[in-house]
Amino acid sequence: MDLAVETREKFGKANKALRKEGLVPAELYGRGVENLHLALNAKNFEKVYRVAGENTVINLVVGKEKKPALVHDVERDYLSGEISHVDFYQIRIDEKIKVPVPIVFVGEAPAVKEQGGLLNKTLADVEVEALPGNLPHSFEVNLEVLDQFGKSIYVRDLRVSPDVRVLTEPDTAIVTAMPPVKEEEKVVEPVDVSAVKVETEEKKAERVGEKAESEKAEQ
Q1: Nearest to residue 40, comparing CAs of 69, 31, 32?
Q2: DSSP β-bridge partners for residue 98
Q3: Can you say how many angstroms the Cα of residue 108 is from the centroid of all Cα atoms in its chain?
Q4: Whole-prediction pTM value?
Q5: Three-state SS for 140?
Q6: Mean pLDDT, contiguous 10-residue spans, the chain (219 residues)
Q7: In what order do the strands lie in the sheet with 139-142?
Q8: How far is Cα 219 from Cα 215, in angstroms, rounded to an integer?
Q9: Are 51 and 12 in contact (CB under 8 A)?
Q10: Backbone region of residue 17 per phi and psi (left: phi > 0; alpha: psi in -120 to 50; beta: other values)
């Protein structure tokens, strides 16, 4: 998957002018390589990123040269949601790397659909190690096997290529079918009005008078 980029020499406030032209500032860095300051077309990047995500190799085309890289970080404007900056990590095709691979849930759990249960999803991704060309785009988890409460799908249940080593503990639960939560009925104890002491106006006046006489005696 290729993505055309260009080098840039201007920074800081100049990035604002870039964005007005539909371009996004980016950085390419990696172990033992020189950092490159880049600019890329925002719409083109969105299309590639939608397919590649952060664990599929993208070939950054700089002039006549291609640099294999992974998307490391994407910053977005908190108001508009538009991409404001991208970081790429340059990799070596012949060197294994460790990355998180997202989990994609498919199907419906009978324990939820038919019995009113709930899904407790405890993992969003799984850490793996592999050569860049062997990295899976995602792991698919079929919820249809969750046909009773308490049943779980574990990391060890994933279908993994022999070229990929899973680093997350195999006994880690990915998702569990849970029984519905029953709301406990709150019992409100009735108030015994007869037990509440109400101070009458006469009693209040008497108490105020006693306090005044006590203060006069002290003087």
Answers
A1: 69
A2: 129
A3: 22
A4: 0.69
A5: strand
A6: 87 71 90 89 92 90 92 89 91 91 95 92 95 92 95 96 96 95 60 53 58 55
A7: 139-142, 97-106, 125-130, 165-166
A8: 7
A9: no
A10: alpha
